[in-house]
Amino acid sequence: MGLLRDWNYIERAVQIPALSEVIREALIRALFVRDDRVLPKDLIADLNRVPPVTVKVKDDGEVRKLVRVLNGEESTLSLGLSAEDYHYFRTQLGVGRTREFGAVVRPRTLLTYDWIVPEQRGVQLDFGGYAGIEFADGAHRAIAQVGATWKQLYDDGAAKGHAVPFVPTVPLDFAIGDALCGDAPFASYRGEFASYVNALRTISPFGHRARLGFEEVANNGTAYDLLHATVPLAAEFFIPVAVALRLEAKPAARKTLTYAFDDGAKLAAALDKLSRTSQTPSWVHITEAVAAKILRPAVASGAFTAQVTVGGSASGLAAKEKAIDTAMAGFTSKNAELPNPFDVPADGYRKSAEAVARSLFVGEVRVPAKSFGDFAGKVRTFGDQTAAKAGVYGSLRHTGIVSAFPFFAAPKDRSKVYDLSKGVRAIASRIPGTTFTSRLAHLWEEEAHFMRRMAFLRSLKLTIDTAHVVQPLVSP
Amino acid sequence: MASLDYAYRRLVNTLGPERVARSEFERMVYSHDFASLPKVALLQWKLYPDFVALPQTTEEVAALVKLSDESLLQLTPRGGGTGWYGGSVPNRGGVLVDMRKMNRVVAFDPDGRTVTVEAGMTWKDLEDFVDAKGFALPIVPVNAIGSTVGGSINSGSSGFGAPRGGSLRDAIALLQVVLPDGTLLKTASEADAGGHLANLTPLFFGAEGTLGIITEATLRIVPKPETSKAIAYAFPSLAAGARFLKEMVDVALVPYHATLASRDHFIFERALHPDSPDPADIALVAVQGSKDEVADQERTVDGLASKEAGAKLAPAVTDQLWRERYNNYSARRLSRGLVTSHNLVPVSRLPEAVETALEIRDKLKLNGAVQAFLVDSTTAALVPYVLMDDTRPSGGTALGFVKRMGDAAFKMDGHSMGLGLFLVFNLRKMHGRATSFISAVKVVFDPRKKINGGKTLEVWTKYPWPGLRAIPPPGMAVGLEIAAVLRRAKPTRDRFVRAYEHGKEE
């Protein structure tokens, strides 16, 4: 995710006397949008620099070797590069000079925006070709290499009798690893992505294979649960190469119920009510009109659509449907035939993902279900005010919280992203119980306990990555 | 180091005389947890604390932590003392911090669906409170009657409701912890509805009180189910019962809880309570949902049970089993002591796991029973226990059972649970090369090893001298292995209960 590096950079920057005069938020803005009226030109040049070398990973052995080269344990000779590549590699990285360089994992698909401080002069790892998935025999577990796409996992799992419990709230063509080094919003009704991670196979900052957690069972009662503390930031502590995922059995019958609502308040009341029943649907996906139009251009939709997928025995499905119908009272129409965004052929999914990806996303807002209508309305108004047509994708959790992803039809330039993020933050702050959890929102946060937690995470990173190889922290 | 008398005066000044104890009897009570330990352990560790302190507020806990800088006495936090591996037992004396006086509900938020409680509250009390408010806890640890909120979080427990409600880790919204420097830390954002990136809560889940002292926990609560029903079946063998549990996962049925107990468990129960159910290998399943759903789930479970020749038990028996679900170890009264082994094994290997547990028990000529329950779609908890009498010379050798069971769990791609003072040798088996990452957490939070030092990652002894200060963890493993070998060489089987032996012959 790059959060620690960005946060560390800003923390250090505000200690520089010349910059401390600039208030923190203004500095974040200047860094984020690369504002050359505020920051020195050479600093902007540093921020805009991209990693000079990209390694397309085919095997984790290559990563191990590379890490050992980067932390000085092995010579570049051991990489076995051709003479031309060898020369390029050494000159680009400045091997032999005194500055540090590290490795950064590049997400396949980034929902929001790139980090403020890119890897300065190290190696970017592209795991696109490292995409195998292994399913366990007789158990509901998969080991997915980080380059494997979610859609591939979902489809292959279903073919082998498993149900992949989590889906991306914003249906983009994410790789599984994007939840570790990017911002893929995987979740189910009952849990976050991390709840389904049994273990991570990683390469340590010293080039060893290290497994965090247990591939076949839960990581309970084994001292500090570093695995779940670091899942969203894993790529800042180690280089994750594969994830052991907890799946579920494919139910005998499955149904997606689509409810249309003409009013946000009615939808919000229905979602709140549903989350207060003992129903456990696989997922509840919500779209307002703009999002629905992008996802299902051929289908006329109401102001809001909620799709609820339930599974169970064929005989039990009717009882579940009845209970969900009761909870979702207030809908204007119901459709049990409309396809959901996830159970479509891979080509169709990719095509729809391309359409979804054209919008500008600013990150996740956690909003109480009963306030979702209010939130969606405010986002729409804000979009109208800023001439950037707005919409929202969302998914309901059993906790009564909707994980909402507002988006805007606007060009993806950094200053626009920043300004829209600020607007969304202002909306979230006006709705009780709502939090904006984007990376920028974390950087804006100055609450004492939060700062302390981040400082602990930074210390932990520096203690684990003493070689400064995995996304090394950099100072201005 | 300040003198003990000085330290006592400082403690009394902080908490008052009624909440600081130093009598022999009180110190003895705190010198062990639920597990039985042979007296020989006193040669290695100073299991008796120098003082027992009973704080009532977070500020008092912080004051105790700051005081330890002055007295240089170790701090050992303790909840209900229902752990098994010495996590809440002193190894070098010092101050034992009994959290059970911090047992209040701090806040209840029905809209946000959270409850904030002090760490010393027992799960049963919390469950009753939440129930009275029309809500339920997503998960309730197995020893809910004695186990405290802080204690269970520190031991990384699982329990009732896990298949449906998820991990206890996910049920924690926020912890308030007194850190080793005496300051307070909130482990997640107070306004957090999940999704925050700087959430340190998982680091404290299973930390065995070695990173700081948890004083408050904000837990998620769920609406009370419309209908709940418990159903029980008797199976011809334990393996058949285990296959039944596995089948439930394979047909995507998500019960509230599904547990299995071996026939021996009910023989012990019968010896103590004549009205307990007839001894058999019994599975107890609880389902939740709407009335129609519960009826449908019951039909599915009936079908799965009949495939394994399971006979449905009468509702009165089932109700009794459900009522008594938190009383799992009354057999302890038969033998004066009891040793439990907590392990997680893959659900797919549960039938093999329960048979292995019985095999190890029989090889070591122990009296004991096997219990297991579903944790999630990949994981089952395997919790066999054996009886022991630590007043007999052969008593302590029963501890070898824990080592053998843990090894068996690792062989089945699972792991044992808990490290504490006695099972630290499993740390490297658990985490391999990632052990150094795990150790880094302690370095960051408690570099001076002030809180519950010498546990979880290393084994301190009571001796301060170089060379004797700590035991290499593999040394503990060798000791327990020798215990297992001696146990196996014992010519006779334990005979704690005649009824038990009689039942076996039938």
How does this structure look, described?
Chain A is of the alpha+beta class and 476 residues long. Chain A folds into two domains: 47-249 and 447-476, 2-Layer Sandwich (Uridine Diphospho-n-acetylenolpyruvylglucosamine Reductase, domain 3), CATH 3.30.465.10; 253-440, FAD-linked oxidase, cap domain/gating helix (Vanillyl-alcohol Oxidase, Chain A, domain 3, 3-Layer(aba) Sandwich). Helices cover 36% and strands 21% of the residues of chain A. Chain A contains 17 helices and 21 strands. Chain A has helices at 3-13, 17-20, 24-33, 41-48, 60-70, 83-93, 150-159, 178-181, 226-230, 264-275, 289-295, 314-327, 346-357, 372-385, 414-430, 439-444, 448-464; strands spanning 53-56, 103-106, 123-126, 133-135, 141-145, 162-163, 167-168, 186-187, 197-203, 209-213, 239-246, 248-249, 253-261, 283-288, 304-312, 333-335, 360-361, 365-368, 390-396, 401-408, 435-436. In chain A, strands 13, 14, 15, 16, 17, 18, 19, 20 and 21 form a nine-stranded antiparallel β-sheet that branches. In chain A, helix 10 runs antiparallel to helix 14 and helix 14 (372-385) packs antiparallel against helix 15. The longest helix of chain A has 17 residues, at 414-430. Chain A is globular, with a radius of gyration of 23 Å. An eight-stranded antiparallel β-sheet of chain B has the order 17-14-16-15-21-22-19-24, with helices on both faces. In chain B, strands 5-6-12-10-11 form a five-stranded antiparallel β-sheet. In chain B, strands 1-2-4-3 form a four-stranded mixed β-sheet. In chain B, helix 1 runs antiparallel to helix 4 and helix 11 (263-272) packs across helix 20 (498-505). Chain B is built from 20 helices and 26 strands. In chain B, a hairpin with a 5-residue loop joins strand 10 (172-178) and strand 11 (184-186). Chain B is an alpha+beta fold and 506 residues long. Chain B folds into four domains: 4-100, 2-Layer Sandwich (Uridine Diphospho-n-acetylenolpyruvylglucosamine Reductase, domain 2); 103-223, Uridine Diphospho-n-acetylenolpyruvylglucosamine Reductase, domain 3, CATH 3.30.465.10; 226-326, Alpha-Beta Plaits (2-Layer Sandwich), CATH 3.30.70; 421-481, no CATH class. The radius of gyration of chain B is 23 Å and the shape is globular. Chains A and B meet through strand 10, helix 9, strand 12, helix 12 and strand 18 of A and helix 8, helix 9, strand 13, helix 12 and strand 19 of B.
